[in-house]
Each structure stands twice: as structure tokens, then as C-alpha cells.
Amino acid sequence: MPKIFQYLNFSIFIYTNDHLPVHIHVSIQDRQVKAELIWANDQLEIHFKKIRGYQPLTNSECKDVAIFVRKYEKKIKEKWDKIMYYNQSVKVEIVKKKL
What pTM value is reported for the model? Predict the structure, then answer.
């Protein structure tokens, strides 16, 4: 599961050999959610899903993650493609400033 971003205290990663739709896993402390990125009519929709065995992020944390995802959606998609379709490694990017 390559980590693709570190945003503040959030670790953002993609499982290799995963499934569509494009999505990321976001964890902080011992909590985790999956954020699905759905593009419809050139608009990005973000759907947060609970993960069995983990407590979810708070609503406030999900809002912070959504802001991050909207800002970095193209890079997330590029990293997804490299990992999922081209079996390439990607470097983790660290974003320390709150968006």
C-alpha cells in the first residue's frame, strides 16, 4: 500500500491491485476511511466510506480531507494510474500547510 501523500497528520495511500472507482485510503491515528473520487459532468464528487474494523474520521476531518482532495485531484489520479495501470512506484508528497 504505497503512501502517496502526507497531509498534516493524515496519511493518504492506495492499495495496489485494488478496484475502481478511483479511491484513496486516509488514516489518522487509529481511524481510517476510504474516499472515492467520482467525476460526473466535469464535477468531482467525493464519497466517504467506512472501512470495516476501523473507526471513521470525524466530520471535521473528512471536510479537511475533501478540501485536500479537491486541490490535489489531478495528482491523486496520476498516482492512481501509475500504481494501478503501470505498476510504477510513486513518491510520497508531504503537505504541511493546512489548505
Answer: 0.94
